[in-house]
Every structure is written in C-alpha cells, then in structure tokens.
Design goal:
single chain, about 600 residues, alpha+beta, 5-stranded antiparallel sheet, 11 helices, disordered C terminus
C-alpha cells in the first residue's frame, strides 16, 4: 500500500523539486537586478546630497572672513549692520539661516533678527558644530533647531579663519526640500547618522527613529547635544537588521542596500519590498500547481472506478452485517436480563451485610453514648456546685446544655439505627464551622480532663456543604477525643484542627503530637474492635463508625504521620457545587451499603 502511494506521489514530487530549483535560480536573478537598480539609485541620491552640501559649504568660510558679519564679535554686542548683512546673504544664497556666535557660544548676529524666533542672544555653545569650529575645524552637524523647531544641516567655520578663533560663523541648510523630492519619487529611501538614527526619509513616519535600540551611553550623548530635541528615538521595528541585504520594518520585509555619504559621515539606505524579488517565481509555481492538479484529476478518476466496484462489494457485506447485528441485539437483551438478576442478588447480599453489622452496632451504642454521657456528668457536677453557690443563672445555662445533650443522645441512637440497617439521613446545606463548634463543645471536657491544648484554625467565611450535620459532628467528636487521648501523656500535649477548601471539597485535618500510629497498623486502624489504646476505654469502634459515616456521606477519612511526631487524620467532605441548592428539604442520602 505504501509503495503504491509512493509511486503515485513521485511525479508531483519531481515537479515540485524542479519548481523549487527554478524559483531559486530566478529569485537570485531578480535579487541581482534589484541590487543593481538600488546601486544606481543610491549613487544618484548620494550625488544629490553631496551637491546640496557643496552648494553651501563655502558660505561659513565667506562669512567668517567678512568683517561686516563678524563686527558684532569685536563690539561685544549685537550690531544692526551685521544682522542686515546676514539677512541679505541668506536671501541671496537660499540658506535657511546665517548667524555668528562669540567664543562663549552666544549668537550676536543672525539673518532672522527681525523675526519672533530670532536667534540673537541665544546660546548654542553645547552644539558639536560650535565645539568643532572653536578647535579650528570645519563643523558639520544635522539636528533639529531648538528655536525654530525645523531640522537642518549646520555648517560652521571659525573666525578668523587663521589664528586663534574668537567666534564661529554658521549656515543652516533646510533639508525638507530634499525629503519632498524623495517622497515624490515614490521610492523608499532614508539617511541615518553615525548612531543609526533616521533623520531624512521619504516616509515621514520613519523620521527620528532608529534601526535598532540605542545603548544608554549613545542616548545620553545625543541628549546632551539636544540633537533631536525631545524625540523619543524609538526603534523603527521590533526586529533588528537580519542581514546585509534584508531589513524588517513594521512587520514588512525589504531588500536592503546602503552606501556611505563619506563627506558627512552619513549612510544612505534604499529599500525594495521583498515581494518584488519574487516576481519570476509566481509563473513557475502557477504552472507547477496546474500540472499537479491535472495529474490529481487523472489519478482520482482512475481511483473512482475502483471505488465504485468496491462499493458494490460493501453493499453485500452490509447486508450480512445487518443480519449479524440483529443476532447481537438478541444477545445484548439476554445479557441485560442476566445483569439485572445479578444486581438484585448484589442488593440482597448488601442487606445481609447490614444485618451482620447489627451485632457490631450493639457495642457501638455503648461507645458512642459514653462520650455525651461523660460531658453530661461534667455539666451535672458543675450545676450542683453553682446551685450550692446560689448562681442560678449559670446553673440554668448548664441545664440547657444538659437538655441539648440528651437530645443529641436520642439523635445518636437514631443515627446508629440508620447505620445498622438501610435508612436515611437528612441532607441539609450546613455551615461546616457550626458543626466544628458543636463538636468542640462536646469534646471540650476530655481536653480539660487531660490537660491537652486544643487549637482550631478555620476560615472566617462560611464553609457551606450539603451533608448530614449530626453525622459530621459524630466523626469530629471521635477524632478530637482520640487526639486528646493520644497527646494526654505529653507535658506539652496539643491538638490542632485545621480547615481548608481544596476546590471540589473541604478538608478537615486533626493533628496531635502524641506517639503516632506505626505504619504497619495504619491499614487496620479503621477495622471494627481494633484499638491502639492500652487502657480499657478503647473499644475500637469509633474510627470504624467514623469511616463508614464518611463514606456514607460521599467523603473520605484517612490517617498519616505527623512530623516530627504524632498522627494526622484527614476528613474530606464534598463541597457544595456552584449553583447547587437543596431544592427539596425531604432529600435524603442513601447509605453506601445499599447502593
């Protein structure tokens, strides 16, 4: 089967391999053609920039030599004649601004001296072009004008041109016309400075952005010279330059070519969308896809004939399967009848097991009633003492507790009856904290008698569960009394009850620092009449009853070791699901043995 499919797939596979090879060759040719065009365009744009630079390069030198422009430096204050001379020179030369600065960097004469944004009196001594000129060098600097807010190329020369400089002559060339010409050409071209900041671009939204994220020291140097005013200089793309010939900007990939503008230290970039380098590949893939589809139609036609023959055979087999299915339906009905009989037998066996537990429950009655009876004796003794002292109010409160205990003993006998035979326990929405408090009140006399400290840690918010409250209290009383007995021999005996929600259930932990339960006995600890207590008080029924009650309520009861010593009993009660309510107060839980 696999060999046949391999043979069928061989022709289109060969076509695809051929198309890949041809597409690669033609793509290389397309990329070479794009690169040649880019080199020609870059040469043209570079000559345009250099021509603009050479056009104004002589002006700072001439102004630095002309006493009419530099007279203000000698006078130490602005002179109207110098301002008018610079204004006339700017108008004749086409320069954006002409101005002269003294040795401190303060402008003493400017061509825009009569305009609101006049440069006269403003200090630009921090600009790199001023510092270069004061060193006797030719200053060249592209920046955003701090006063006018317009970008431009600043060209500076020292004055006098020979000897110790006492001032600087500056020409600002407006580069916006250059960008406008680039944009009208419809091509993607931009220029970057030595730091990789785009300052001239045919795309205005790329201006004053960077090719990559700038290091902190570079950003600090740019900020100190205020080269780009308050521009944030964000990267033009989240991806850096991926290669010499490829650049990704705004999630679009371009064929990238660049060249240096040597005189100014700039770099000129020319971009072509990478899709334009794949033009020759599209016809190749179109022809390949057409041939593959034609081949697929032929193969599917031949396969259709075979499938029609196979369909006739399948119809015959379907008729046979239908007859077999009817026989299977009869067998399934017979199996269900047998399963129903087995279920009835299982229920009878469960009832027999319940009857066998009656003998065990007779001893459990004594065990379970001994706990509230012990508390009852304590309340009776306390009541007598309060009556002797004349404290009738406290005595009345104890009598109420005694009445509550006798009611509980009646309820316990009923619960033991239900446990001994199939019965029902009322299911309610209960705040588990109330059950814990009720169990603590019953078990408190045992803790006072043994001197063991009881600590209860539970949430302040309600813990609503759907369960039988008396049966939960019965489990908790057993666990608390057993823990108190286990820690009774310790001078620092302590029992902790902790409650936490685990999502689908509420977990109650009872921890003690007693001798603990050996690992070998933990599996037997829940067996009826098995006890680890050495005295005669333990009948070995408390944990067995608690285990059956927990399972009856859909929960779990388990034991583990406590560190560094002692035992941990964990009672897991199913939590009330979101949106669940006890719609009918007559709803009951069937004991697990009757399921």
């Amino acid at each position: 089967m696999s060999t046949r499919w391999l043979i069928l797939a061989l022709p289109p596979l060969l076509l695809i391999i051929t198309a890949v090879a041809l597409a690669y060759v033609f793509q290389e040719l397309d990329e070479d053609g794009v690169d040649r065009k880019a080199a020609e365009r870059l040469t043209l744009y570079r000559q345009t920039i250099v021509g603009e630079y050479q056009k104004y390069r002589y002006l700072p030198y001439m102004i630095a030599r002309d006493p009419r422009a530099t007279a203000s430096i000698g006078l130490g204050q602005p002179a109207e004649s110098a301002n008018r001379f610079l204004e006339e020179m700017a108008a004749n030369s086409g320069a954006d601004l002409l101005y002269v600065m003294n040795a401190e960097g303060t402008t003493v004469a400017a061509s825009n001296w009569q305009k609101p944004l006049s440069l006269v009196g403003r200090n630009y001594g921090f600009r790199p072009y001023f510092k270069a000129a004061m060193r006797g060098e030719e200053g060249q600097f592209f920046a955003i004008g701090l006063t006018t807010g317009r970008p431009g190329l600043f060209l500076a020369r020292p004055t006098p041109v020979e000897g110790e400089p006492v001032g600087v002559a500056v020409v600002k060339v407006d580069t916006r016309d250059l960008e406008t010409a680039w944009a009208e050409g419809g091509e993607l071209v931009f220029a970057t400075d030595a730091d990789g900041v785009i300052f001239l671009s045919s795309r205005p939204d790329w201006r004053y952005r960077t090719l990559a994220d700038l290091p902190p020291e570079t950003r600090a140097a740019i900020a100190s010279s205020q080269k780009y005013a308050k521009e944030t200089l964000k990267p033009v793309s989240g991806q850096p330059v991926t290669g010499q010939k490829q650049l990704t900007i705004d999630r679009q990939t371009f064929r990238h070519n660049s060249t240096d503008v040597g005189l100014l230290g700039w770099k000129l970039h020319f971009l072509v969308p990478v899709e334009e380098t794949h033009n020759s590949a599209l016809p190749i893939w179109a022809v390949t896809l057409t041939l593959c589809l034609f081949y697929a139609v032929i193969v599917l036609g031949l396969r259709g004939r075979r499938l029609r023959k196979a369909s006739a055979l399948l119809r015959q087999e379907s008729a046979d399967l239908k007859d077999l299915n009817q026989r299977l339906v009869g067998e399934i009905k017979e199996r269900r009848r047998v399963e129903h009989a087995l279920l009835e037998a299982q229920r009878g066996l469960a009832r027999s097991n319940r009857l066998a537990a009656v003998g065990e429950m007779s001893a459990a009655v004594v065990h379970e009633l001994s706990q509230p009876l012990s508390a009852l004796r304590m309340f009776v003794a306390g009541t007598r003492k309060f009556l002797e002292k004349g404290d009738t109010q406290t005595a009345a409160e104890n009598l109420q507790e005694i009445d509550s205990l006798q009611t509980r003993m009646t309820s316990l006998t009923q619960e033991l009856k239900r446990f001994a035979r199939p019965g029902e326990s009322r299911i309610e929405n209960v705040d588990l904290r109330e059950s814990i408090q009720a169990a603590e009140k019953i078990a408190r006399p045992r803790f006072e008698e043994t001197g063991v400290l009881l600590k209860i840690d539970m949430p302040v918010t309600p813990l609503i569960v759907e369960t039988a409250p008396l049966r939960i209290e019965q489990i908790l009383v057993n666990l608390l009394r057993n823990a108190a007995d286990a820690a009774a021999d310790k001078d620092d005996g302590v029992v902790q009850l902790r409650v936490e929600e685990t999502g689908t259930s509420v977990l109650i932990r009872v921890l003690d620092n007693g001798p603990g339960i050996p690992i070998g006995l933990r599996e037997r600890i829940f067996d009826p009449f098995f006890s680890t207590k050495t005295n005669s008080e333990g009948m070995g029924l408390g944990l067995a009853i608690s285990m059956r009650i927990a399972e009856d309520l859909g929960g779990e009861l388990s034991v583990s070791g406590n560190r560094p010593k002692g035992a941990v009993f964990e009672l897991k009660v199913p939590a009330l699901k979101s949106g669940d309510t006890a719609d009918d107060p007559s709803e009951y839980l069937e004991p697990a043995i009757a399921e």
